[in-house]
Amino acid sequence: MGESSSVSENLPRQAGKIRVGVLGATGAVGQRFIQVLANHPWFELSVLAASHRSAGKRFADACHWYLDEPMPAAVRTMTLEPGQPGMDCEILFSALPNNIAQDLEPTLAAAGYAVYSNAGSHRAEPDVPLLIPEVNPQHAALIETQRTRRGWRGFIVTNPNCTATHLTCALKPLHDAFGLRRVFVVSMQAVSGAGYPGVSALDITDNVIPYIGNEEDKVQTEPLKMLGLYAVDGIMPANFRISAHCNRVPTRDGHLECVSVELDRPATEVEMVSAWENFRGLPQQLGLPTAPAHFIEVRAEADRPQPRRDRLAGNGMTTSVGRLRPCELLSYKFVLLGHNTLRGAAGGSVLNAELMVAQGYFGERAIAAPVQAALRATQLPLWQHA
Ligand code: NAP
Predict the structure, then answer these.
(1) Residues labelled as active-site residues
(2) Distance between CA 66 and CA 284 in Å, rounded?
(3) What number of other Cβ atoms are within 10 A of residue 306's Cβ?
(4) Which of 216, 184, 189 is nearest to 333 (CA)?
(5) From atom 33 of ligand 1, which residue's Cα is the shortest distance away?
(6) What is the pLDDT of residues 312-349, one digit of tens each?
(7) For residue 155, what is the domain's CATH number?
(8) Exposure of 374 by Cβ count < 10 A (0-12 exposed, 13-18 middle, 19+ buried)?
(9) Using 50, 70 and 90 to split pLDDT, how confident is the model at 369?
(10) Which residue of 78, 118, 246, 370 is surrounded by the most CB atoms within 10 Å?
(11) Atom of ligand 1 nearest to the CA of 24
């Protein structure tokens, strides 16, 4: 896909792996990408890019590493690139700010890169997949429409806003089993959701900020696209309504959401729990490398899930739900929790790329052959097979 550049030529190529890069590598999501991609069985991290302020510097010199786990040794001496065409990789994982992603991601897709974006800039476009592999794997096929319409060699696939991600994960089994009419959600979102350095300590310590710019609109619309029906020229959004209140709270990682749902068809609490526990997504069936064993984890304790205790469920890729009980206004209410920079950002993006390797969008690859065989065995009509 992308043309070769001199910056990463000194890195040894790993046989059979797909070379990938990270845009916005020094930020909160970029660092998670580096963590998720370290020792990845299919992907080899060959390019790191950031702003013109950082380009040309060694990663360790330009990046304020904020994660508790140490910076992987392999990236310390990599030279940051400016993120323009010419990078030596096929896939670009983008953790760019929205205003930069707006123009740069299409430029890179046109140049032949497969861009997996965390930015909000292109999520609502009708020919851009907004993807969670367990929820709407068939929507990946929109890239064919995208390439045809835009004449690109590459493509853009997006993953949803971090709060919308976990809400959609929890709603998917309920939507499939019982249908949904109305959803009311109040979020308590961690400070890492605002990037690094993000919210000032003076603003968030001993405080809750009852406003996150543009967040409520994303939470109210993105789940409807993902739970909608695929058509070649776009997605017909799911036919229910969501009302969201979004708040920034002084937790570090992990977004907590209090949700009330009105179901279309009556269900008991046992049936609700069974819908969550028995749901098995395509990534779990195929054993994709970043897929958690459990897409949803149902907590039985009265006071769980909690951000500090439960955000790393399934290596940060599982959505935890708990406190299911009848709702005085709608049908039921419950609490959900999910990691915002893992499943809600970098982990979600990497799983999207794994899904599309398995679906055959990167051609026959030895690394993914067993998964592609398993996919063919599912005999599902909408997924592209190599
Ligand atoms: P962040 O911590 O502020 O990081 C921004 C990154 O973008 C840095 O690497 C920065 O590089 C780079 N950058 C800034 N200006 C640039 C430019 N002009 N050209 C190229 N690179 C530039 O932000 P973040 O929280 O990681 O968020 C990244 C994206 O993911 C955003 O679109 C955000 O909405 C989305 N997202 C975030 C989360 C989350 O939980 N944080 C969850 C889902 C989605 P320098 O170090 O050189 O400035």
Answers:
(1) 162, 255
(2) 31
(3) 17
(4) 184
(5) 119
(6) 999 999 999 999 999 999 999 999 999 999 999 999 99
(7) 3.40.50.720
(8) middle
(9) confident
(10) 118
(11) 9
Say if residue 126 is in the same domain as residue 182: no
Looking at residue 358, its pLDDT comes to: 94
- Do the bridges between strand 332-338 and strand 255-263 make them parallel or antiparallel, or are there none, so unpaired? antiparallel
Query: 146 and 54, same structural domain?
Result: yes
pLDDT single digits (tens) 98-118: 999 999 999 999 999 999 999
pLDDT digits (tens, 9 = 90+) for 144-198: 999 999 999 999 999 999 999 999 999 999 999 999 999 999 999 999 999 999 9
Pocket residue to mutate for ligand 1, from 96, 104, 159, 342, most atoms within 8 A of Cβ: 96
Looking up tokens 């997949």, which residue turns up? 129
Mean pLDDT estimate for the chain: 94
Question: Which amino acid residue places its CA nearest to atom 23 of ligand 1?
Answer: 195
CATH of the domain at 183: 3.30.360.10
pLDDT band of residue 371 (cuts 50, 70, 90) is confident
How much distance in Å is there from the Cα of 187 to the middle of ligand 1?
22
Residue 373's pLDDT is what?
82
Q: Which two tokens stand for residue 262?
A: 């009105």
Q: Which domain covers residue 55, as residue numbers? A: 6-160+345-378
**Which ligand 1 atom is nearest residue 98's CA?**
32
Residues with CB under 6 A from ligand 1: 24-30, 50-51, 53-54, 83, 95-98, 100, 118-120, 162, 192-193, 195-196, 340-341, 344-345
Pair 32, 17 in one domain: yes
Q: Does residue 150 sit in the same domain as residue 174? A: no
Provide the number of structural domains found in the chain.
2
Of 197, 194, 196, nearest to 212 by C-alpha is 194
